[in-house]
Amino acid sequence: MAGNLIARSVHDLTAAAWFGGSLMGAIGLNGAAAAAKDPSERTRLSSAGWMKWAPFQTGAFASHLVADLAIAWENKDRIAKQDGVARDTVIKTAVTVVGAAVTLYSGILGKKVEKMAAEGAEGATEPAPNASEELKAAQQQLKMLQWVIPAFAGLVVVLGAKHGEMQRPKNVFAGLQK
């Protein structure tokens, strides 16, 4: 029981870190960086903050996946037998993997923006009028992704909660009857 409690706790805390970290970065970090007086500092400061967060987020993803495997192992019979659990497990895994890929791509875009910081910007994801097309494209993609990422992370949290609800005795019994 203790192992499962730890795995579930790690699973939920790492999903929360992904969700909260991505929202804080999009709202707080990027918002604060946009207030820098020097336009060339705006993307540099934002990039520096995101790079400080990246190792923690990577650790959270790795821990999340390990916890997922532990939970799946503990629940392998329920996944195989209870109606809807295997389907929801596949959906949640797909959402997690795609969300992680989007997060990784966002990091790659962030490095690209950082390299062009000297061009200046209105904000972390808002290009200056005279910015190169390459910088504008990267910032526009980042602007969209900064809201897509917490949506993926939030969906992982919701799907985790759904899995928890499916473990209520009345739902397990009903799911095994079908």
List SSEs in N-to-C order. HHHHHH
State Rg: 20 Å
Mean pLDDT: 90
Query: How far is the first residue's CA from the last residue's CA?
Result: 27 Å
Q: Proportion of β residues? A: under 5%
Secondary structure class reads: mainly alpha
Kindly describe this structure.
It is built from 6 helices and no strands. By secondary structure, it is mainly alpha-helical. It has one domain. Helix 1 packs antiparallel against helix 2, helix 1 runs antiparallel to helix 5 and helix 4 packs antiparallel against helix 5. The model has no long low-confidence stretch (mean pLDDT 90).
Q: Could you write a compact summary of the structure shown?
A:
With 178 residues, the protein is an all-alpha fold. The chain has helices at 2-34, 39-74, 76-81, 85-115, 133-166, 169-177.
Topology (elements, then pairings):
Layout: H1 2-34, H2 39-74, H3 76-81, H4 85-115, H5 133-166, H6 169-177
Helix pairs in contact: 1-2, 1-5, 2-4, 4-5
Features of the shown structure:
about 180 residues; mainly alpha; 6 helices; about 85% helix; about 0% strand
